[in-house]
Amino acid sequence: MLHVAICDDEETFVQHLNALLTRYAQETGIALKISTYRDGADLVDPYDASLDLIFLDIQMCAMDGLRAAEQIRKLDSKVAIIFLTTLTQYGLEGYQYQATNYIIKPLQYIRLKAEMDKFLARRQTEPDPFLLIVNDTGKYKVFLRDLRYIETFNRNLLCHTEQENILSYKSMKEMESTLQGQGFARCHTSYLVNLFFVKGVKKLEITLVTGETIPISQPKRKEFMERLTEYWGDLL
C-alpha cells in the first residue's frame, strides 16, 4: 500500500489530482491510499509518519508549503515531496528541503504518470527499512539506520534514535522478532542493540560509536559476541 498526501488549499485542484492518482492506481494495479489536507499546518500537526509521498502546494495561507516542508524534514528525512506551484522560482527554492521534484500547475495526467513512475522506480532500487511506531503522541517512522538501541522503560520500550527517543508499547520479544535479520542483537534482558553502532565490548559493557555504554549480561554475552563477530565479518 502506497500512502500519498495531497496538501493544497484549492478544492478543485485537490479533486483533480485525486482523480489522476486514482486513474494511475487503476491502470497500474498499485494499491493507493490518498489523504488530503487543506493547509500545511494540518499536514504537519499531527504528522502522519506512514506517508510515502506528499504533493505539497507552495502557496497556501496559514502555513505555506516551504514552511511545512521545513517542519516535515525535522520529523521525516525520507518521505518524498513534490512541490506544486504556478511560479517556477518557488519550485527552485523548494530543493533546499530535498524535494523530489516540482510541478507547475495545471497538471496533466501524462506528467503525473511520469512523476509516479520515477518515484516508484527509485523506491524499488533504494529500499530503506523502517519501523512504524504508534503511541499516544502520534505515529513515527523510524528508519533502522537511525535506531541505535532499544531498552525497556516502565513496562514499555524506549527506542533511541539519532534524533529523539520514542516510546513503543510493544514487548521486547515482539520487537526482537520484528527486527530479526535486520542487524540487531539482544545483549541483555532489557536491551536490543543495533550492531552497526557497536564500537567495542569490554567485559560486561558495550560501547557505541556515539560514546554511549550499554550493559551486556553474562548469560547473553556468548551469543551476542557470536552475532557481533558474524556481523563484523560480513563488513570486512
Automatic annotation (TrEMBL):
Keywords assigned: DNA-binding, Phosphoprotein
UniProt xrefs under SUPFAM superfamilies: CheY-like
Coiled coil: none
Lineage: Bacteria, Bacillati, Bacillota, Clostridia, Eubacteriales
Transmembrane segments: none
Physiological role: May play the central regulatory role in sporulation. It may be an element of the effector pathway responsible for the activation of sporulation genes in response to nutritional stress. Spo0A may act in concert with spo0H (a sigma factor) to control the expression of some genes that are critical to the sporulation process.
PROSITE patterns: HTH_LYTTR, RESPONSE_REGULATORY
Domain HTH LytTR-type positions: 131-230
Organism field: Evtepia gabavorous
Sites of 4-aspartylphosphate modification: D57
InterPro entries, per the entry: CheY-like_superfamily, LytR-like, LytTR_DNA-bd_dom, Sig_transdc_resp-reg_receiver
Domain Response regulatory as annotated: residue spans: 3-120
UniProt-recorded name of the protein: Stage 0 sporulation protein A homolog
Molecular function GO labels: DNA binding; phosphorelay response regulator activity
Pfam families in the record: LytTR (PF04397), Response_reg (PF00072)
PANTHER family xrefs: STAGE 0 SPORULATION PROTEIN A HOMOLOG, TRANSCRIPTIONAL REGULATOR-RELATED
